[in-house]
Amino acid sequence: MSLIEVKDISKTFKVSKRRGGVPGMLANLFVPKFERKEAVKNISLSIEKGEMVGFIGPNGAGKSTTIKMLSGILYPDSGEIIVDGFIPYKQRKNYVGRIGVVFGQKSQLQWDLPVIDSFELLKAIYRVPDAVYQKNLSRFTEMLDMGSFIRQPVRQLSLGQRMRADIVAALIHSPEIVFFDEPTIGIDVVGKETIRSFIRELNEQDKVTMLFTTHDMQDIEKTCKRLVIIDGGTKVYDGTLGGIREQYGTSRQLDVEFAGRAEIAPIDKVEMETIDENKKRFIFENRDIQINELMNQILSRYQVRDINISEPDIESIIRKIYNREVDGI
Amino acid sequence: MRIAPYFAYARKCFLGRSAYRFDHLMSILSTCMQFFIFWGIYRALYGANSEIDGITFSMVTTNFILSMGLGAVFCPDDYFLPNKIWDGSIATELLRPISFKGRMIAENLGNAAFDLLFRFLPVLVIALLTVGVSAPASPVMLLLFLFSAFLGYGVLWTISFAVQMTSFWLINIWSLLTIKNVFVNVLSGSMIPLWFMPEWMNGILNFTPFSSIYFTPVQIYLGQLSYGEIAFKCGVQVLWIAGIYLIGNFLWKKGQQKLVVQGG
Q1: Taking CB atoms and an 8 Å limit, are B95 and A106 in contact across chains?
Q2: Which residue of B has its CA nearest to A104?
Q3: Could you tell me what percent of chain A has a pLDDT over 90?
Q4: B85 contacts in A (CB within 8 Å)?
Q5: pTM over 0.90
Q6: Could you write out the three-class secondary structure of A5-74?
Q7: Cys bridge to B9: A194, B27, B106, B189, which one at CB 3.0-4.6 A?
Q8: ipTM for the complex?
Q9: Which domains are delineated in chain A?
Q10: Percentage above 70 pLDDT, chain B
Q11: Amino acid B109: pLDDT
Q12: Partner residues linked to A54 by β-bridges
């Protein structure tokens, strides 16, 4: 049995459908219209202890809804969730003490109080022993470089500072499972890097199990080994980061700069684009034609000055998956 | 259930209230103004009479200062749940390993303690120095008054609690809360002492929870009730608390399953 076991969960929301303008408003007032939106459809997932899983999908794919069901905030309409032996939504009060959740878009800190006061409050709520609290606080404060603003009221913090404080707030009770829901949203490159290395260290040293949603593929590449992609409420990929390249990223591109103005005859099963006068791009599938064969064909026939092979980056593969441009989905 | 986390929430509220000092000073002023406006109106209505229907003017004054003073303390945050549902912060609230209802009570009591010390007492002192307030009927009655006022707070809290729970379905419940507050203000005796209500009206009011909020404690304070009547009226207060709480709790259980977190 895995630490986190999700079986066939679904969640449907009733969304009111508004018609625009004054006539539409009047019509709505008397005959409201509703639509059922299936936010999550039969998702199953299992995560082992100590794993770090990137959880991605386009906006509205159902990521946050899934995280909220895993955290015991929302009730699934059907299906089963067991985390660490608990059914989150039924045993909420006992369960949530064991997990930490960071919502990038919702602060958990007390708006009017200094950051440190919020931490003190959490210490009391989670009944964190003094020694553990002091140890966590000083360690996290140093790792996330929070010394300069820990005594400022939350309302006066910048977004990056607030996010770091929020992350510490979710971890102050040393949870063994942490859900991050877009912890790097709106953060600059330096801030993102700090957060990533913090998350990585927590996973490696403390063996904290993590589920991490984001829209920044670099977050995933730098932290997670495993990737789960959902779209339209269903799971479309679950595997390693490298696996996704093997499965979907099979196309390669070859940029060739010719010695002079090149008139290239079309090559079978290879797409050709003109970059400029003497530069061409060849796009092909690995399974259709071998790279050395293609290069042979070109080098034997034309004068070549420079050549460059690249494989698609993760981001463009993901983009293809979101746009449903790949096979097998 | 350990009490420490709840105490921490109560303390946080108590301390947080001092953040906006000017607002607090104004709230003392507003309670004083409210009191003196009503005092002035009844002063004029009484004219040269020292009593009307056996009710002396000093009793009326005492009714106002006690019910409005208590009213300054009895302010459960009606938007505690609605606001959290409206802006989606209910999500983070439910992540805390404590009872949401317990926390709601704790925060309200933290605020009430602050208001008792820094709003009720200043207003009481101002009233004592200016228009005078009747002394309690006896020390025992003062204690019973405090006990009954505490139960009155319970009645008011459970009403607010039950109404708030409808926000799981309705999201925006401003109008429901306004209706509730009109009922509380008019029918609890804090604007019109219930002595002056017509007989039939008082008959109806006996079947509503509103008169148990302020009027029962005030009557005890003034020594208008016998021990038997006090026991009966406090019993009624307890029944209201239990009954309304059960309704609210039922809505709370159902509402959690319906919960929609707004804003992603």
Answers
A1: no
A2: B264
A3: 49
A4: none
A5: no
A6: EEEEEEEEEEEEECCCHHHHHHHHHHCCEEEEEEEEEEEEEEECCCCEEEEECCCCCCHHHHHHHHCCCC
A7: B106
A8: 0.75
A9: 4-10+41-246 (3.40.50.300), 250-311 (3.30.70)
A10: 99
A11: 93
A12: A212, A227
